[in-house]
Amino acid sequence: MNIKVACGLICSLALTLFFGCQASVEESNSIFDVTVDSLFSIHTVNGEEFGVLRDLKLGEDGTLFLSDPGLHQVHKFTPDGEWIDSVGREGEGPGEFNRLGLIQVIGDTLFVPEASQRAVHVFSAVDLTFKETVRLSTGLFSPGNAHLTPIGEEYLYLGGISFSTNDVLVRTDRRFQDAQPVLMHYIASNPIWALTHAVSLPTDALFVAYRFLPFVEVVQGTTVTASGPLHGVTVDDEDAQLSVERDGYIRVAQGVPSTPVTYDLAATQEGLVFVVLRTEGGARTVQLYDGAAQYRGEFNLPASAAGIAVHENRLYTIGGDRLHVQVYEFQITERL
């Protein structure tokens, strides 16, 4: 039975039978197939070319937000690709960016971490007006590579904040206070960052993938509750025989490959996670995982993707050239 993951069907009986709750996906051991069809692409902002696109996030209604460090701006588009407004300019003042990186939209608020200022700029996601700048009090830095992932109404997970060769994932409140470490990766044999990708699940858990490590994990609170390998992913580097030792929240990785394993991830409203893998043909393979970090299938995109986001039955990707956005419609089919 084909199910188009659309907002109007989420509460329907058909989708309940197919996805049910998160537990039913995990217990069924089903393998899913996904088909994608190209809808449209976005190549310009207000009639001008993009600088270089770094990240994309979607509002609750499908509104698209793009991080563009090339132009030192965040752009806002309708779900159908029409430009609404842009905010930001080069500088170190309120709402200005020197090292614009990943962004996050939570309700009516847009969060923009700024590496050079070790701060997070906060804007209205409705009209892009500047609200405030929050200085990080965690003692960590390099927030330009940081992802902000909301869990419930109280907490944020702040990951990808690196120092030396370590990568730290912390849980913090919405004011970026009271930070509590959850995971730390120390890259023992390669001077690179693990760089986490993370997305929240309907169970208020956090699904975590790693740019240079071939496994995924699920975090509930401050505890890793599930983990699993990336399906069919091996380390090809001759000197990179990967081994990871776990001691509490610390992971020590030996023999980490010098090229990325994953590029980004996104989750459907039902908790199925899309993980973009790096392959010989570029970042085109997308694997599916459930909330227990178990493999549920894969599909190939028509073109390479440097970023990914999902809303209802639409899949938004940053093109491999980082100069355009490609939008697809997708359908999920349970394999019989």
Structure description:
- The protein is mostly beta strands.
- The chain has one domain: TolB, C-terminal domain (Neuraminidase).
- Helix content is 4%, strand content 51%.
- It has helices at residues 13-18, 22-28, and strands spanning 2-3, 32-42, 44-45, 48-49, 55-58, 64-68, 73-77, 83-87, 104-106, 109-114, 119-124, 130-135, 147-151, 155-163, 166-173, 180-187, 196-200, 206-210, 215-220, 223-229, 243-247, 250-254, 262-267, 273-279, 282-289, 295-300, 305-311, 314-319, 325-334.
- The longest helix has 7 residues, at 22-28.
- It is globular and about 55 Å long.
- The N and C termini lie close together (9 Å).
Q: How does the SSE layout of this entry go?
A:
Blueprint: E1 2-3, H1 13-18, H2 22-28, E2 32-42, E3 44-45, E4 48-49, E5 55-58, E6 64-68, E7 73-77, E8 83-87, E9 104-106, E10 109-114, E11 119-124, E12 130-135, E13 147-151, E14 155-163, E15 166-173, E16 180-187, E17 196-200, E18 206-210, E19 215-220, E20 223-229, E21 243-247, E22 250-254, E23 262-267, E24 273-279, E25 282-289, E26 295-300, E27 305-311, E28 314-319, E29 325-334
Parallel strand pairs: 16-22
Antiparallel strand pairs: 1-29, 2-29, 3-4, 5-6, 6-7, 7-8, 9-10, 10-11, 11-12, 13-14, 14-15, 15-16, 17-18, 18-19, 19-20, 21-22, 23-24, 24-25, 25-26, 27-28, 28-29
